[in-house]
Fold each of these.
Amino acid sequence: MTNDHVELLEADFIFEAQRVLVETDSWQHHRSRESFEQDRRRDAIHAAAGWRTLRFTHRQIEHDPATVTRALEAVLSRTPTQSR
């Protein structure tokens, strides 16, 4: 799922079966102190509800997609009980 809500907070990508959220952060929209703090608050709320959040920057996605892919494959290949 994309751009849906988990714990009343919007997430960029949701992998419900694995309880994994993926956030894509661009410098343009995430460069303020307020944005930084808000992202950490969201991560903590999601973690408390049993979700794992992975964050990737626009640059990582654009210039190093192999690393992004490896990280996603590693995390998504586990069931929720394997990651605990």
Amino acid sequence: MKWLIAGASGFLGKALRVRLASEGDDVVRLVRREPASSTEFRWAPDVGEVDESAFDGVDVAVNLGGVPVAPLPWTHSRREEILSSRVNTTKTMARSLAARAGSGPRTLIQQSGIARYGTTSGAEPYTEDSPAAPDYLAQMTTKWEAATQPAADAGVRVVMLRTSPVMDSSGGSFPLIKLGWWCGLGATLGDGSQHMPMISLRDYLAVVQWAGTHPNASGPYNLTLPQPTTNAEFTDTLAAALHRPRFLRVPTIIVRAALGELADQMVADQHVIPQRLAAEGFTFGDPTVEDVVTSALGSAVRH
């Protein structure tokens, strides 16, 4: 198979490139700078421009573009950047695929996030059928996903990955969390009872490959633990794995004072399950918080 990746220089993009190439697939990528090799193609998604030859022979396009949500404060300009970096890349990708309908990639795998469901959970967990919350990140995610519509209208199979934090020692938030514990600063956030969604890197990569090779997969999928965990359970598991004591607790009021609106992504409840993946036969390699922590820590040796 041949894959085209946008956002291939980030944590997830790099890992996906390595995984696909190691299994014999061809991988090309879109870059904003001048291409440095025959596997790179220039694009400028802010103005809707892309080198159309990037799509030649491609089976699956993967869009992982977007600036990080954390840790910078959500000023007005930062909010606009978070939104535009996602919508512009997605819109440019979707329109390019639509223009090549019948001759280009027939599948678009689009990154999204579980932030769509908000940070207030009810009695039942959120599934892919749950409505979007009214807060900023949820509405941003809704616009992000909607930008894929030109591709879907042209008959391209669109898979949207509503991804929870991906845990691995090679990137994302986990290295900082691990460092905190090594330094004796590991702590439970708030009262620790809030659901804390997550997925291991190897399961994330497996879902992407599954989505690319299963022709009936389409629409949104939640990428998170099939056996949900809480912040307290995660910190207990990590403390035990690192042989560090867990005796610190950071009150919610302090987290909110330090992080503002972003604090809700850490101390509020996010009870989400991967209902569609389970129903359609995907098997998680790391279904529990213990499995995720073991996988993330073990990756430090592999990378």
Amino acid sequence: MSMNAAAPRRRSQRILLVDDNPENLTLLSALLDLRGYSVFTAGTAEAAHEMISRQAPDLVLLDVILPGRSGYELCRELKENAETRLIPVVLITGLGEPEDRVRGIEAGADDFLNKPIYAEELYARVRSLLKLKEFTDELDNAEAVLVTLALGIEARDPYTGNHCQRLSRYASDLGRHLQLDHDDIVALKRGGYLHDIGKVSVPDEILRKGSNLTPDEWKIMRQHPVIGENIVKPLRTFRAVLPIIRYHHEHWNGSGYPDGLKGSEIPLLARILQVVDVYDALRTERPYKPAVAHSISHDTMLQEAREGLLDPDLVHEFFLLLASQEKAA
């Protein structure tokens, strides 16, 4: 083969625009054409569904207000179908109420765009989701998927630093300390990266607020474990991680979410991730709080265990582990 032979051209990524307003379709098509995407359009949910069944796009930009079936309904249908659930769906809405976002999250939307749409925001969200789609298409390469999802998490919140990497290390170290089997330790390592992947659907203004959330904002935030579980569920090699993702916000006394599990009802791996997550949150500076010293973190977590928020035995074992690591250093 000649060294001068041209490399094969990469396939243009296919984007389906769904909107009943021809002006919107023309504008968005022109913007995306400029970036080299292959753009297809539909004016109704029914027409879009037919196009997707013939050839799946790489991304769907979906207006929520459509004649006939709404964008919410089409999004839910796509996400409930095993053949289409991995297609990223961005809901485009002029509706600004929190309940509208909750409805979109419940339908399984991967992201949102608010009207009026700004070109740079459009490009950034499309580029990010298409990059994620490239890797989720390679389901056999689980590690590539893991790294991509982890980068997606940390990119949403620049203040977390290497939070996912630290949790992965803490959780797997604690698993080894507890003499768990290899598969559980691998699940903990992956869970450190993927536990909060559902926050991809939480708006930045809520995610970065950190505290004093309103009831509507809490309703959105409390959806992220379920959304994260649904995102990762198609990855067969990550089945052991699903309980970590869904249950890492449950509390020992049953006051957590999303299912209100209590005590040993909460899977052990989820309890482990929760303990190390709390420790890292205390030890990390955030916009709304300073970092806390190790000794104060120890006392705080013991108090939370006494109040029924954390598994007291795991808190004890985690600090034994940290003490042994400090001695060995």
